[in-house]
Amino acid sequence: MTLFRLLTVTLCFSLLMLSLNSCHKGFSDENYQPDPHPNDTIVDYISRSRASVQGFVLDENNLPVAGVQVWADNNATTTDQYGFYQFNNVLLPTSGSAIRVSRTGYYNASRGFSLTDNGFVEVKLMKRTVTGTISAGTGGSVTTADGARVELPAQGVVVAATGVAYTGTVAVSAKWINPSADPGLMAAMPGDARGLNKDNKLRFTSSLGMLVVELHGDADQLLQIASGKEATITIPIISSLQSRAPANVSLWSLDEKNGFWKEEFTATKTGNSYTGKVSHFSFWEAATGLPVVMLRARVVNTAAQPLVNTPVIVTPTGVPWMAGYGRFGYTDAAGYINAVVPASSNLVLDVATRCATSLYSIPVTTTTADVDLGDIQGNQGQGAVTLQGTVVNCANNPVTDGYIQFYDGGFNHRIPIYNGSFSFSGTACVNTTTSYVVVDRTTSRQSQPQTITLTGQHNLGTLSACAVSSIATLTYEIDGVSYTASEPSLQPAGYLLTPTSSDWTQILIHGISPDRDFSFQFNGGTAIGSAHYITEVFCKGFAGERAIVTVPLSINITEYGNVGGFISGSFSGQMFDFVSGVPYNVNCQFRVRRNN
C-alpha cells in the first residue's frame, strides 16, 4: 500500500496533524452534536457518547496484521485475517478517543479520532529495534543514527508493572520519527494534533520533531523511569524547519488511551535539536500549542455521492508538498470529515489518493469560529472509483449479511452488502490492481479471490459467495491431546516467506499468547502434493516449546490458493522435544488463509 509523503509546514504549522475522521450524518441534522471544543474549552474526559469506528491494522511492510487486540477506550476487539477491526455503537469519551494497538516487537500505536457515526482509522505499526544498552545502576546514554539521544540517570529505572527497582541491563529502543524521509511512517504517526496544555485547554500541537522510546529489561519486561527521577531526551528538528525553530518549545507526551498530547516539560534548542528532561517514556514531541477550530465538510463526487474512506489533506496556503512534514486523515462512511485545524489561518484542503496525488483543492480561511464547508466536490479525474453490483448465495438468493473485501494494491476497503447489493464511491491510485473476495456471513461461504484494475466506474454484475468455506481452521494433536483454532476468535494464517529463494511457507495461529503457540514452516513453494517437508514445530504443548525431527517429515499440500484464498494440508509423525529429547506423536490438519 502506498502512503503519503506529505506536506511541508511553516514554523507555526509543522506537523499539521489532523483528525479527519468524520462528524455525524449531517450538520443540519437535529441529532448532530458538534465537538464541544471552542478554543479554550477545558476537555471533559467523563462524558460518553455512542459512536462507531472501523479500519485496518498493517505492519511495516503494509501487510495486514491478523489476530491482534485493538482498543477504543475500554472497548476491545481483535483484527480478522485481513487486519480489519470494527467497533459498533460503543460508548466513547465525547471529547474524542484513540485506536490503540500493541504487538510484540513493535512500538505501541495510538491514533486519535473524533467521534462519528461510522469513522475510519487506519493504523500502521512501527518495528521496534534496540538502539543500545545502558546499565541501570550507573546510567548512561544511547544515540540513534539520526541524532536522537536518550540519557538515563543512575539507579533511575523500575519495572513498569510493579514499580520495583531494576538493576540489570536496560535495552533502549528509540526512534526519531521523520516522515519527510520515510512516507511509510505516515499511518504510524500517533495522536491527531489535539493537545491539552498545562491548563487542560485544547490546543493544536504544531510539532518540530517526535521521538518514541521504550525500555526493556533482561527478561524483555517493560521498564519505566523511577518516581522522582528524570531522563534527558534529544529530538532532532526537521531539516526544513531548523533555521526557523524557536529557542524553546514545550515537550508534549501522548496519552495513548485518549489520543491527546499533554504539555509537560520544556525543551531548549541546541544546534539542530531540542533537549529536555522527561519523567516517563512513550511518544514525545517538541511543539508549540496553537488555538484551534473545527473544520467540517462532506466530500462528495460530481454525482453528489459521498466519497468513503477518502484521504483529505490540509496545509497552510503557499506551502508546497514534500518540503517537510504533514498529516492526513480519511472521510467516514458517509463522506464526512471533522478536522482539528489552527484558528485564524489561511489553509488549502486537498482531496487526494494514497499515492500523494491531489485530485482537487479548495481554499479555506479560519477565524476563531468553527468552519462548516457543507458539501464539497470537484473533478477527481482518473482517481475517482465507483463500484457496484449484486451478490447471491449458494441458493441464488440475495446475500443479506456479507461484504466485499478488497485487500491489496493499496486499496484496503470493506464494502458492506445490503439486501443483496453493494455500492462504493471513493478514490484510488490510477490503474490500481487489487484483489477481492465476496463473503456471506450467514452461510460462512465466499468466492474465490478475484482481481480487478480500478479505472473509474465498475459494475461488477452479479457475484456469487458460494465457492468455498470462508472459515480457516487448524487442528493439531500431540500424544492424543487435540486442539482446534478456528476463525473468528483465532486466525490461522499462511505466509509465503520472502525473499522466496527457498520457497518456504510459514503456518501459524494469530490471537493466542504467545503469538507462535503453534507454528511451522514447509518448503516446496506453492506446489500441490507431497513434495514438501518440515523439520520443526513450535508449540507450548511440548515441554521445551519446540520439537524437531531427525529425518525431514513429509507434509501433503492439497490446496495453495492465491492471496485471500486458502492453503490446506496435513502431516503426522514422531517428533522430539528440542530440550529433553522426549518423543511425541504429532499430527496436524489445516486450512488457513494465505495472507501474502
Word description of this protein:
With 596 residues, the chain is mostly beta strands. 0% of the residues lie in helices and 51% in strands. The strands form eight sheets. Strands 40-41-42-43-44-45-46 form a seven-stranded mixed β-barrel. Strands 30, 31, 33, 34, 35 and 37 form a six-stranded antiparallel β-sheet that branches. The radius of gyration is 25 Å and the shape is globular. The two termini are 13 Å apart. The relative contact order is 0.12. The model is unreliable at 1-38 and 322-326 (pLDDT under 50).
Q: How many helical stretches? A: 0
Helix content: under 10%
Which strand-content bin applies to the residues? Answer: over 45%
Extended strand count: 46
Mean pLDDT metric: 86
Spatial strand order of the main sheet = 40-41-42-43-44-45-46
How can the largest sheet be summarized?
7 strands, mixed, barrel
Distance between the termini: 13 Å
The helix/strand class is mainly beta
Poorly predicted ranges:
1-38, 322-326
* Rg calc: 25 Å
> What general outline do the C-alpha atoms trace?
globular
Task: Supply database-style keywords.
596 residues, mainly beta, seven-stranded mixed beta barrel, six-stranded antiparallel β-sheet, disordered N terminus
In short, what is this structure?
This protein has 596 residues and is mainly beta. Strands 40-41-42-43-44-45-46 form a 7-stranded mixed beta barrel. Strands 30, 31, 33, 34, 35 and 37 form a 6-stranded antiparallel β-sheet that branches. A 5-stranded mixed barrel has the order 14-15-21-18-19. Strand 42 (518-522) and strand 43 (529-539) form a beta hairpin.
